[in-house]
């Protein structure tokens, strides 16, 4: 099997239901979700398999969910069933709460960083925010987009923030507080 088809050489690509320009809003949104999936994969290689067993399981599920959401964005067929549902969002909210309770209390804004894994999880968080912004832009241009994807990405960035803090905490690396931050989390 050849990996290249040459069909994209003219600046077009196929989504489910038609061909579009490679810079189409849908392609930008699901392409950023693919980028996010890759950054999460990188973060997973930086997490100790025993210390972070729970977070690694979360992240693997998230990778599958990102494929589901990306597929939902790429599908323009009139008759379709969305793969990404509200259930993973509810699961993620419970995990965010558990991770937030485990991490040290937060009073000020923190700088992305600390351990390599935490830094990569912060990168993933910012890519999730970009994917969310692009999905919002797509939703403004096309009212036939599942709102679950945007909600999922919003919650995912919160999860990644909480996971980054725990990635530091479990190996006794302190978060770096932004020195000019007031106490904003009370």
From TrEMBL:
EC number: 2.5.1.17
Protein keywords: ATP-binding, Cobalamin biosynthesis, Nucleotide-binding, Transferase
Pathway info: Cofactor biosynthesis; adenosylcobalamin biosynthesis; adenosylcobalamin from cob(II)yrinate a,c-diamide: step 2/7
InterPro entries documented for this protein: CblAdoTrfase-like (IPR016030), CblAdoTrfase-like_sf (IPR036451), PduO-typ (IPR029499)
Catalytic activity: 2 cob(II)alamin + reduced [electron-transfer flavoprotein] + 2 ATP = 2 adenosylcob(III)alamin + 2 triphosphate + oxidized [electron-transfer flavoprotein] + 3 H(+); 2 cob(II)yrinate a,c diamide + reduced [electron-transfer flavoprotein] + 2 ATP = 2 adenosylcob(III)yrinate a,c-diamide + 2 triphosphate + oxidized [electron-transfer flavoprotein] + 3 H(+)
Gene Ontology terms, MF aspect: ATP binding; corrinoid adenosyltransferase activity
Ranges for domain Cobalamin adenosyltransferase-like: 3-167
Protein family according to the UniProt entry: Belongs to the Cob(I)alamin adenosyltransferase family.
Record text on subunit structure and interactions: Homotrimer.
Xref: PANTHER family: CORRINOID ADENOSYLTRANSFERASE (PTHR12213), CORRINOID ADENOSYLTRANSFERASE MMAB (PTHR12213:SF0)
Annotated protein name in UniProt: Corrinoid adenosyltransferase
């Amino acid at each position: 099997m050849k990996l290249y088809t040459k069909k994209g050489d003219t600046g077009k690509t196929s989504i489910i239901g038609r061909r579009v320009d490679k810079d189409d809003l849908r392609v930008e949104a699901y392409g950023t979700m693919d980028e996010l999936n890759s950054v999460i994969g990188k973060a997973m290689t930086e997490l100790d398999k025993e210390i972070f067993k729970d977070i690694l399981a979360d992240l693997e599920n998230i990778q599958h969910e990102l494929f589901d959401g990306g597929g939902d964005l790429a599908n323009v067929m009139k008759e379709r069933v969305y793969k990404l549902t509200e259930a993973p969002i509810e699961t993620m909210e419970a995990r965010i709460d558990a991770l937030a309770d485990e991490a040290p209390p937060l009073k000020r804004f923190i700088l992305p960083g600390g351990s390599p894994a935490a830094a990569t999880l912060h990168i993933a968080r910012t890519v999730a925010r970009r994917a969310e912004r692009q999905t919002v832009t797509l939703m403004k241009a096309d009212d036939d987009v599942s709102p679950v994807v945007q909600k999922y990405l919003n919650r995912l960035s919160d999860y990644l923030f909480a996971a980054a803090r725990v990635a530091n905490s479990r190996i006794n690396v302190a978060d770096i507080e932004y020195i000019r931050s007031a106490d904003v989390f009370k």
